[in-house]
User: What shape does this take?
Amino acid sequence: MSLEGKTVLVTGASRGLGRATAEAFLLSGAHVLALGRELTAMNETRISLTKIGSNFEMVIMDVRDESTVTTYITALSDLDVLVNNAGIARSRPFVETPTQELRDILEVNVVGAFVVMRESARKMLETGGGHIINIASDAAIRGIAGMAPYAASKHALLGLNRSVSQELRQRGIRLTTFCPGPITTDILGVGTANSKAMSPKELAKTIVHLAEVPPEIEIQELLAQPMP
Ligand SMILES: NC(=O)c1ccc[n+]([C@@H]2O[C@H](COP(=O)([O-])OP(=O)(O)OC[C@H]3O[C@@H](n4cnc5c(N)ncnc54)[C@H](OP(=O)(O)O)[C@@H]3O)[C@@H](O)[C@H]2O)c1
Assistant: This one.
C-alpha cells in the first residue's frame, strides 16, 4: 500500500526510534504529524525532518495530558496511521523499586498509549479506517531482570493491542504490536545505548514496511531481535 499523502501520527518523535520513524514516513511520501513534549529536542527533530521534506507538522504534547491529546486528535481531518511510540524505561533491582516508579511507567507506557490509541481509533472510525502500530518491546513477551515495571507495562500494551484488535478489525482498523529487542537509543539515560543493539533507522524502515502491507492483511505482532 502506498503511503503517499497518508496522514501518519508518530508519538515520542523528539529522539530515538520515534524521530527515525517520523523521518522514514516522511521519506515514504506520507504527511507526518510528529508529536513530542520537549521543545529543544523537538527543534532537533524539525531540523532533521526539514532535510527530507516539508510535509510535516510538529506538535508539542505530553501523552499524559488526556484533554490536550483528545482535543488535538479530535480536530484532525484525517488519520491513516498511528505509531504509538512514546515510552519510558527505568532499570533497578525489583526490591529497590519504589511504587511510584511503577506508576510513572504505567502512566506513559499504558495510560498514555491507551488514550492516544482510543482517540486515534475514534478518528479512524469516522474517516474510514486505519492502522495502529503500538511500539512495545520484546519485554512484552518475556521478563527482563531489573526492569519489572517496564516489562509489566509492555505486557499490558500487548494485551491492549490483542483485545482492541478483536473489536476493531471488523470495522476497518488494523492493529500491530511491534516488539523490538534492544535499540541503540538513550532510553535509560544519555550514554546508555548498547552498541550491539539494533539501529533505530533500520527499525523505522521496518515500521514503514508494516504500514505498507496491503489493507486486507493484518500483521498482529512482530518480534525483532539483533543478530549475534
Ligand atoms: N531502546 C530500546 O532498547 C527499546 C527496545 C524495545 C522497545 N523500545 C520502545 O521504543 C519506544 C521508543 O523508545 P526509544 O528507545 O526511542 O527511547 P527514547 O530515545 O528515550 O525516546 C522516547 C521518546 O518518547 C518520548 N516520551 C516519553 N515520555 C513521553 C510523554 N509523557 N509524552 C510524550 N512523549 C514522551 C520521549 O520524549 P522526551 O524527549 O520528551 O523525553 C522520546 O521522544 C518506547 O516505547 C520504548 O519502550 C525501546
The pocket of NAP is lined by residues 11-12, 14-18, 36-38, 41, 62-64, 85-89, 108, 112, 135, 137, 180, 182-183, 185-187, 197 (CB under 6 Å). Residues 90 and 190 are 13 Å apart (CA to CA).
